[in-house]
Design goal:
The complex is a heterodimer of chains A (about 325) and B (about 325). Helix content of chain A is about 35%, strand content about 25%. Chain A has an eight-stranded mixed beta sheet with strand order 6-7-8-3-9-10-12-11, with helices on both faces. Chain B starts with 5 loop residues before the first strand and ends in a 12-residue tail after the last strand.
């Protein structure tokens, strides 16, 4: 068993809004080993990004962490003081966001933004010279497969294409991600051929550097070739955890099964069936299984009790009372 | 499938935009036709001009050159000059229902407008018409007083489809109708569209970047790259025997989830480079800077479209006789 880097247990996050309390995350669990590549799939609004933001402690001001622990190398991120937290973000973990255009500041040159991060991440003690910082920035851009790094440092984000912007964001995250890299839909806003390139490059980078990765996506195909373990999220809960191959060959949770069926196949065979209904409102959400309202196999018990995650062997866990019968 | 009458014919269509930095040739000499009751898929990456083709057909702007024939009549003019009767026949569903529906109008108001504009309820009973439409798009009748902006993506897109259907069109341009939706919702919307096509004898121009989806909905597919169609074929032929290197690159990059799909992919062409800016389209074949099979001729001469075999057209110098008569 690989050394454990991150262990999220029973995480609960609520949001205070005008209409009331949004009970978004409930009983979320997640384990990431050292150098392990983990994927989370789920549809929009299922809490993937919220979970990641909780790990980075960058949740919005109206968020309330109502319970759970986030153990990162043995210490609980939720209990860290500001100084320790800053050190963690500066030297250990970092995040790539979905939309590189929004992640970069449009009024500063790429160099200014990247060098700022480099200055505080790569050089912990003495004040580095401008040349040292610049050299490091060039090195990072090169490792993110960007040609002509000098020119890119002197460009504004709008002068770069979408793919190049995302590569810049990858370079930025590499400055501080020495252990854990969180990639939140890194290819979603890009064209399919560019996404393909970015994902291949990213995989190479994390393998070379020996980083642990959490890759988030709503595109099931995009994560498949990347990660060794997959989590499926639905409406703020983890419904299934399994090694990648196992999840595709033997999906157990009814939501996972339906989700895999709903993807149109390149081999044809007609338009697949969707899942009736929609994600429940987080304000009025019931205590039972959150998928019960859309589940064809739902029984009385599903509507009242939230199912725990049952271990069914081979590292496969599923949060469904009826996992054997479906 | 290939026989039958043409409902829409586009010949030599060009749409150029003048900008302060030069002329953008968004659509440059595109020809294709759509048969009655057919779904014709137009696939391409962002910036390929696929949406512009749809917009010119709708008359959102008039073409720079070329002709559009719809049910035997020339409609190569902007929407202002089109007869009202024609507008009834041609409708469009846009990509993002959040921006194509007015958030300050209720679903009832949105669905009522096309009936009013075209005087489609002689007895003045618009409410009944709206309810019938809501039954058709499977929205509960009580949604009539709800605001479109408050609904989920699937419901919003259903309203947009209902609005397009209200006038009883013959032809609908579907401009990425599901790319803003989750897969489970996408499947539902696509099935609805396919059912309406059968029930109301509709013909679709389906614009998308999603090849897996195209495989399952279109009878014929055209691939666009920088304003030109580079390959056009019947769907089974297109996916079993792709010819153009760009098509092969696209297919290689599609994320898939089953081994059967992986096996279907053509010889892997690793994606490199990115789509050029529309202001500086490369000379010759515009794909040549990214093409692994580039030859000298590709840098100078624009390949013309040839019929490689029955109904399978390709514009590439790799296939003999292409470009000879330039």
């Amino acid at each position: 068993m690989a050394e454990q880097l991150l262990e999220v247990k029973d995480l609960q996050v609520n949001f205070k809004v005008y209409e009331g309390l949004l009970r978004v995350l409930k009983g979320v669990f997640l384990n990431v080993g050292a150098k392990e590549k983990v994927g989370i799939i789920g549809e929009s609004g299922c809490g993937k990004t919220t979970t990641m933001k909780a790990i980075m402690r960058i949740l919005a001001a109206n968020a309330i962490v109502a319970g759970g622990t986030i153990a990162y190398r043995g210490s609980d991120v939720l209990q860290l003081g500001m100084q320790d937290l800053m050190r963690l973000r500066r030297t250990s973990m970092s995040m790539i966001f979905q939309d590189p255009t929004a992640a970069l500041n449009p009024v500063f040159k790429v160099g200014e933004q990247l060098e700022d991060i480099v200055r505080y991440s790569e050089f912990t003690s003495d004040a580095p010279t401008k040349q040292e910082v610049r050299a490091k920035a060039v090195e990072l851009l090169k490792s993110a497969a960007l040609p002509e790094p000098e020119r890119i440092l002197d460009s504004y984000p709008f002068q770069l294409s979408g793919g190049m912007r995302q590569r810049v964001c990858i370079a930025m995250s590499l400055a501080s991600a020495k252990d854990l890299l969180i990639a939140d839909e890194p290819g979603t806003s890009l064209d399919v051929t560019i996404e393909d390139q970015i994902m291949r490059e990213l995989k190479q980078i994390v393998e070379e550097r020996g980083l642990s990765v959490i890759l988030i996506s709503h595109s099931i195909g995009a994560v498949k070739g990347f990660v060794t373990k997959l989590y499926v999220m639905y409406a703020g809960t983890m419904v299934e955890e399994a090694p990648t191959g196992e999840l595709f060959s033997n999906p157990v949770h009814p939501y996972t099964q339906n989700l895999l069926k709903a993807v149109p196949k390149l081999t044809g065979g007609g338009v697949p069936e969707g899942i009736a209904g929609r994600i429940p409102s987080y304000i009025t959400i019931a205590d039972g299984c959150r998928f019960a309202s859309r589940c064809r196999s739902a029984k009385e018990r599903c509507r009242t009790d939230g199912p725990p995650a049952f271990d069914i062997g081979n590292g496969h866990r599923v949060a469904c009372f009826h996992y054997g019968d479906i | 499938m290939m026989s039958g009458e043409e409902i829409l014919t586009v010949k030599g269509l060009k749409k150029h935009f003048k900008t302060t930095r030069g002329i953008v040739k968004a659509v440059d000499d595109v020809s294709f036709c759509v048969m009655k009751n057919e779904t014709f898929g137009l696939v391409g990456e962002s910036g390929s001009g696929k949406s512009t083709v749809g917009h010119v057909i709708m008359g959102i702007y008039g073409p720079t050159a070329g002709s559009i024939t719809f049910m035997g009549k020339d409609i190569s003019m902007g929407v202002g000059k089109r007869p009202k009767e024609l507008k009834k026949q041609l409708q469009i569903v846009f990509q993002d229902p959040a921006s194509s529906l007015n958030p300050r109008r209720t679903i009832g108001q949105i669905l009522e407008l096309p009936f009013r504009v075209h005087h489609l309820a002689p007895d003045g009973n618009y409410a009944e018409k709206v309810f019938e439409m809501m039954d058709l798009i499977e929205l509960p009748r009580e949604f009539v007083v709800r605001y479109a902006g408050e609904q989920g993506g699937g419901e919003k897109q259903a309203v947009a489809i209902g609005r397009a259907l209200a006038t009883g069109p013959r032809f609908i341009v579907l401009d990425e109708p599901t790319s803003a939706l989750d897969v489970s919702i996408q499947a539902k919307i696509i099935n609805m569209l396919m059912r309406f096509q059968k029930d109301f004898d509709l013909s679709y121009l389906f614009i998308t970047h999603n090849l897996s989806l195209m495989r399952n909905v279109a009878q014929r597919v055209g691939i666009m790259y920088l304003g030109k169609i580079v390959e056009l074929a019947g769907t089974p032929e297109f996916f079993s025997n792709p010819l153009h290197p760009y098509t092969k690159m696209l297919l290689s990059a599609v994320p898939v989830i089953t081994p059967e799909e992986e096996a279907l992919k053509p010889e892997k062409i690793t994606s490199t480079g990115e789509i050029a800016g529309a202001l500086n389209v490369p000379p010759g074949c515009s794909f040549h800077p990214r093409c692994p099979f580039v030859m000298d001729i590709c840098r100078d001469i624009v390949p013309i479209m040839i019929e490689y075999k029955n109904g399978h057209h390709v514009a590439c110098h790799l296939y003999p006789s292409a470009g000879k008569n330039m």
